[in-house]
Amino acid sequence: MRPLLVLLLLLLAGPALAQRPIVDIGVRVKDIADIEGVRDNQLVGYGLVVGLPGTGDRLRTSVFTRQSLIGMLERLGVNTRDQEQRLETKNVAAVMVTANLPAYARSGGRIDVAVSALGDATNISGGTLLVTPLLAADGEAYAVAQGALSTGAIAARGAATSVTRNVPTSGRIANGAVVEREVPFKFGSKPQLRLALRNPDFTTARRVAMAINRAFGGGNAAATDPRTVVVSLAGREPVGLAAEIEQLRVEPDSPAKVVIEESSGTIVMGANVRVSTVAIAQGNLTIRVTETPLVSQPGPLSNGQTAVVPRTNVEVDDQAERRMAVLRGGVTLQDLVAGLNALGVGPRDMISILQTIKAAGALQADLELR
């Protein structure tokens, strides 16, 4: 009877065990590396936004906007040369248009564009971008942008104050550009695939090559430098091979580094940061001077005068309660943070302490200041 009970429990638990997610170790190759040839191309163009409610460029000060407006009207058959000095419209703004052309974008496809004011326009919300060619680094036009733009900003102004939310001089046009030219590149035309690591590292590159060789047989992949892993196609279909390689998981390695941004007081420390044995003491001398003057009034029916009697209180805080702490050699990142927090160290003081530890040769990591 007992074996039957055990068999029944296994049958009931079988589907539940099958539905449990498998915990994968590491990250996918597609999240740490790019395949050569699969990349975006940046586009830029210069255009005009019309239909603004008096918030456009001032033509007297924005000479390029005036010239662009006159040139556009002449191409449309409107002669404004004789009335050039009388152009006072405030409904036009000169803008820069930028976009990213995705890899293998086909002619007729649409991409998003970003529009930013170039002159002294104060708000381009609700305007319409006129036909604007978007050029690549080779000077050729790969897309044409046009459409109504939105900024997502709110701007209100009164006689005494004004309110602005977000940036009213920068907006976007969803699907606002039509691809006119394709970037020529035949994927798989070469006998090998080249993977480019986003964070170059010898260890990570070797691990990627080893993971590929385990999955597809030895000798198919080799790390040629800290950034590049070359994979031989060996008669395999390139798209299918790339798709399978992207799903492989590896454990990327990272150098010991401490990044400090002094402007905001931000400190980021990697997991491999280690500290040799060092003693730390942190404290500041604070002197607080408080003035509380008193007013002395003369007695009733007297000839005295009102006088101000100064009263000064001076307090000195040398933070004598803070003691020197010892961090043992080879401590982990968690131990380092816990030790500094035990001293009551804030982010600003921690920056100075880390710089001093590095100067003493006890911080076994790169210190990067930004």
Automatic annotation (TrEMBL):
Per the record, the domain of life is Bacteria
Q: Which family does it belong to?
A: Belongs to the FlgI family.
User: What HAMAP family does the record tag this protein with?
Assistant: FlgI
Does Transmembrane helix appear among the keywords?
Answer: no
How does this chain assemble? The basal body constitutes a major portion of the flagellar organelle and consists of four rings (L,P,S, and M) mounted on a central rod.
User: Does Transmembrane show up as a keyword for this record?
Assistant: no
Q: Cite the InterPro entries for this sequence.
A: Flag_FlgI (IPR001782)
Q: Where in the cell is it found?
A: Bacterial flagellum basal body
Q: Which residues form the signal peptide?
A: 1-18
Q: Which GO terms describe its cellular component?
A: bacterial-type flagellum basal body, distal rod, P ring; outer membrane-bounded periplasmic space
GO process annotations (BP): bacterial-type flagellum-dependent cell motility
An example of a GO molecular function for this protein is:
structural molecule activity
What is the protein name for this chain?
Flagellar P-ring protein
